[in-house]
Amino acid sequence: MTIRVLIVDDQVMVREGFSVLLNAMPDIEVVGEAVNGREAVSQVAALAPDVVLMDIRMPELNGIEATREIVAADADAKVLVLTTFDLDEYVYQALRAGASGFLLKDASARQLADGVRVVASGEALLAPTVTRRLITEFSKLSESPRPPALAQMGELTERETEVLVLIAQGLSNAEIAAHLVVAESTIKTHVSRILVKLGLRDRTQAAVFAYEARLVTPG
Protein backbone atom coordinates (compact mmCIF):
# COMPACT_ATOMS: atom_id res chain seq x y z
CA MET A 1 0.00 0.00 0.00
CA THR A 2 1.35 3.41 -0.97
CA ILE A 3 2.09 5.86 1.86
CA ARG A 4 0.65 9.29 1.07
CA VAL A 5 2.84 12.19 2.24
CA LEU A 6 2.26 15.93 2.62
CA ILE A 7 5.41 18.09 2.82
CA VAL A 8 5.14 21.32 4.83
CA ASP A 9 8.03 23.79 4.71
CA ASP A 10 8.35 27.47 3.80
CA GLN A 11 11.53 26.81 1.81
CA VAL A 12 10.84 25.74 -1.76
CA MET A 13 14.18 23.94 -2.12
CA VAL A 14 13.45 21.79 0.92
CA ARG A 15 9.98 20.89 -0.36
CA GLU A 16 11.21 20.07 -3.84
CA GLY A 17 14.20 18.09 -2.57
CA PHE A 18 12.14 15.94 -0.24
CA SER A 19 9.49 15.49 -2.91
CA VAL A 20 12.01 14.16 -5.41
CA LEU A 21 13.57 11.81 -2.86
CA LEU A 22 10.27 10.40 -1.64
CA ASN A 23 8.61 10.06 -5.02
CA ALA A 24 11.55 7.92 -6.09
CA MET A 25 10.41 5.31 -3.58
CA PRO A 26 7.98 2.70 -4.95
CA ASP A 27 5.83 2.66 -1.80
CA ILE A 28 5.67 6.43 -1.13
CA GLU A 29 3.78 9.18 -2.93
CA VAL A 30 3.94 12.92 -2.22
CA VAL A 31 0.33 14.03 -2.61
CA GLY A 32 0.84 17.71 -1.79
CA GLU A 33 2.95 20.54 -0.41
CA ALA A 34 2.21 23.43 1.94
CA VAL A 35 4.20 26.60 2.64
CA ASN A 36 2.93 27.26 6.17
CA GLY A 37 1.00 25.70 9.01
CA ARG A 38 -2.34 27.20 8.03
CA GLU A 39 -2.10 25.72 4.56
CA ALA A 40 -0.99 22.43 6.08
CA VAL A 41 -4.15 22.14 8.17
CA SER A 42 -6.37 22.70 5.14
CA GLN A 43 -4.30 20.35 2.97
CA VAL A 44 -4.58 17.56 5.55
CA ALA A 45 -8.36 17.93 5.50
CA ALA A 46 -8.46 17.96 1.71
CA LEU A 47 -5.86 15.31 0.87
CA ALA A 48 -6.00 12.93 3.87
CA PRO A 49 -2.26 12.08 3.82
CA ASP A 50 -0.86 9.26 5.93
CA VAL A 51 2.21 11.24 7.02
CA VAL A 52 2.86 14.99 7.27
CA LEU A 53 6.49 16.14 7.14
CA MET A 54 6.15 19.29 9.24
CA ASP A 55 8.67 22.11 9.54
CA ILE A 56 8.47 23.97 12.85
CA ARG A 57 9.46 27.54 12.09
CA MET A 58 7.06 28.93 9.49
CA PRO A 59 5.05 32.14 8.96
CA GLU A 60 1.31 32.55 9.66
CA LEU A 61 0.99 29.36 11.69
CA ASN A 62 4.03 27.51 13.00
CA GLY A 63 4.48 23.77 12.93
CA ILE A 64 3.62 23.31 16.59
CA GLU A 65 0.24 25.01 16.32
CA ALA A 66 -0.46 23.31 12.99
CA THR A 67 0.30 19.93 14.56
CA ARG A 68 -2.01 20.72 17.47
CA GLU A 69 -4.85 21.64 15.09
CA ILE A 70 -4.34 18.54 12.96
CA VAL A 71 -4.40 16.29 16.02
CA ALA A 72 -7.41 18.11 17.48
CA ALA A 73 -9.28 17.54 14.22
CA ASP A 74 -8.74 13.81 14.82
CA ALA A 75 -7.02 13.42 11.49
CA ASP A 76 -5.49 10.03 10.78
CA ALA A 77 -2.30 11.67 9.52
CA LYS A 78 0.86 11.13 11.55
CA VAL A 79 3.00 14.25 11.94
CA LEU A 80 6.74 13.86 11.51
CA VAL A 81 8.55 17.03 12.57
CA LEU A 82 11.43 18.37 10.50
CA THR A 83 14.20 20.23 12.29
CA THR A 84 17.68 21.52 11.51
CA PHE A 85 19.15 20.58 14.88
CA ASP A 86 18.59 17.45 16.96
CA LEU A 87 18.25 19.61 20.08
CA ASP A 88 15.82 22.16 18.68
CA GLU A 89 14.00 23.59 21.70
CA TYR A 90 10.71 23.44 19.81
CA VAL A 91 10.78 19.73 19.06
CA TYR A 92 9.66 18.73 22.54
CA GLN A 93 6.75 21.16 22.29
CA ALA A 94 5.82 19.59 18.96
CA LEU A 95 5.83 16.14 20.52
CA ARG A 96 3.52 17.37 23.25
CA ALA A 97 1.27 18.88 20.60
CA GLY A 98 0.82 15.46 19.05
CA ALA A 99 3.71 14.89 16.65
CA SER A 100 4.67 11.25 16.21
CA GLY A 101 8.41 11.84 15.96
CA PHE A 102 11.01 13.92 14.18
CA LEU A 103 13.65 13.90 11.48
CA LEU A 104 16.68 16.04 10.89
CA LYS A 105 16.58 18.02 7.63
CA ASP A 106 19.97 16.64 6.65
CA ALA A 107 18.67 13.07 6.79
CA SER A 108 19.71 10.84 3.89
CA ALA A 109 17.19 9.65 1.32
CA ARG A 110 17.09 6.26 3.02
CA GLN A 111 16.62 7.76 6.49
CA LEU A 112 13.85 10.01 5.20
CA ALA A 113 11.99 7.15 3.53
CA ASP A 114 12.51 4.81 6.47
CA GLY A 115 11.29 7.51 8.85
CA VAL A 116 8.11 7.97 6.85
CA ARG A 117 7.53 4.21 6.80
CA VAL A 118 8.14 3.84 10.54
CA VAL A 119 5.74 6.62 11.48
CA ALA A 120 3.10 5.44 8.99
CA SER A 121 3.22 1.97 10.55
CA GLY A 122 2.61 3.36 14.04
CA GLU A 123 6.10 2.72 15.43
CA ALA A 124 6.38 6.40 16.26
CA LEU A 125 9.62 6.48 18.24
CA LEU A 126 11.69 7.15 15.16
CA ALA A 127 15.07 7.71 16.80
CA PRO A 128 14.80 6.39 20.38
CA THR A 129 18.13 7.67 21.68
CA VAL A 130 17.76 11.18 20.30
CA THR A 131 14.05 11.38 21.09
CA ARG A 132 14.75 10.28 24.63
CA ARG A 133 17.44 12.95 24.94
CA LEU A 134 14.98 15.56 23.71
CA ILE A 135 12.36 14.48 26.20
CA THR A 136 14.93 14.45 28.97
CA GLU A 137 16.26 17.92 28.16
CA PHE A 138 13.08 19.76 27.36
CA SER A 139 10.61 18.25 29.78
CA LYS A 140 12.46 20.43 32.31
CA LEU A 141 11.83 23.53 30.21
CA SER A 142 8.08 23.16 29.77
CA GLU A 143 6.36 26.25 31.15
CA SER A 144 3.20 24.39 32.10
CA PRO A 145 3.90 20.69 32.43
CA ARG A 146 0.84 18.51 32.24
CA PRO A 147 -0.02 17.10 35.69
CA PRO A 148 -0.22 13.33 35.83
CA ALA A 149 -3.72 12.08 35.06
CA LEU A 150 -4.08 10.05 38.23
CA ALA A 151 -7.41 8.53 37.21
CA GLN A 152 -5.94 7.34 33.93
CA MET A 153 -2.78 6.06 35.62
CA GLY A 154 -4.94 4.04 37.99
CA GLU A 155 -6.36 2.12 35.06
CA LEU A 156 -2.97 0.69 34.13
CA THR A 157 -1.96 -2.69 35.47
CA GLU A 158 1.43 -3.14 37.09
CA ARG A 159 2.78 -4.80 33.94
CA GLU A 160 1.36 -2.06 31.69
CA THR A 161 3.05 0.58 33.86
CA GLU A 162 6.31 -1.35 33.56
CA VAL A 163 5.95 -1.45 29.76
CA LEU A 164 5.18 2.28 29.69
CA VAL A 165 8.42 3.03 31.54
CA LEU A 166 10.39 0.91 29.07
CA ILE A 167 8.75 2.70 26.14
CA ALA A 168 9.90 6.01 27.66
CA GLN A 169 13.41 4.62 27.91
CA GLY A 170 13.41 4.16 24.13
CA LEU A 171 13.06 0.39 23.90
CA SER A 172 11.33 -1.20 20.91
CA ASN A 173 8.65 -3.88 21.28
CA ALA A 174 11.22 -6.58 20.59
CA GLU A 175 13.60 -5.17 23.21
CA ILE A 176 10.83 -4.87 25.79
CA ALA A 177 9.76 -8.46 25.09
CA ALA A 178 13.33 -9.68 25.59
CA HIS A 179 13.69 -7.64 28.79
CA LEU A 180 10.47 -9.00 30.28
CA VAL A 181 10.95 -12.49 28.78
CA VAL A 182 7.58 -12.58 27.03
CA ALA A 183 6.41 -12.80 23.41
CA GLU A 184 6.58 -9.66 21.28
CA SER A 185 2.88 -10.08 20.47
CA THR A 186 2.16 -9.78 24.19
CA ILE A 187 4.02 -6.46 24.32
CA LYS A 188 2.08 -5.19 21.30
CA THR A 189 -1.13 -5.97 23.17
CA HIS A 190 0.13 -4.14 26.26
CA VAL A 191 1.12 -1.10 24.19
CA SER A 192 -2.28 -0.97 22.51
CA ARG A 193 -4.07 -1.12 25.86
CA ILE A 194 -1.81 1.57 27.33
CA LEU A 195 -2.59 3.94 24.46
CA VAL A 196 -6.33 3.32 24.79
CA LYS A 197 -6.39 3.70 28.57
CA LEU A 198 -4.35 6.91 28.53
CA GLY A 199 -6.07 8.34 25.46
CA LEU A 200 -2.76 8.67 23.58
CA ARG A 201 -2.06 8.48 19.85
CA ASP A 202 1.20 6.57 19.75
CA ARG A 203 4.40 5.49 21.47
CA THR A 204 5.95 8.94 21.34
CA GLN A 205 3.01 10.41 23.22
CA ALA A 206 3.28 7.54 25.70
CA ALA A 207 6.94 8.38 26.31
CA VAL A 208 6.11 12.04 26.86
CA PHE A 209 3.32 11.05 29.26
CA ALA A 210 5.68 8.83 31.25
CA TYR A 211 8.17 11.65 31.74
CA GLU A 212 5.50 14.18 32.67
CA ALA A 213 3.86 11.71 35.05
CA ARG A 214 7.31 11.32 36.70
CA LEU A 215 7.37 7.60 35.99
CA VAL A 216 10.76 8.27 34.44
CA THR A 217 13.07 10.88 35.90
CA PRO A 218 14.87 13.15 33.40
CA GLY A 219 18.62 13.16 33.62
UniProtKB/TrEMBL annotation:
InterPro entries: CheY-like_superfamily, NreC/VraR/RcsB-like_REC, Sig_transdc_resp-reg_C-effctor, Sig_transdc_resp-reg_receiver, Tscrpt_reg_LuxR_C, WalR-like. Residues 149-214 form the HTH luxR-type domain. Residues 4-120 form the Response regulatory domain. Gene3D superfamilies: 3.40.50.2300. SMART domains: HTH_LUXR, REC. Keywords: DNA-binding, Phosphoprotein, Transcription, Transcription regulation. This is Response regulator transcription factor. It comes from Streptomyces niveus (Streptomyces spheroides).
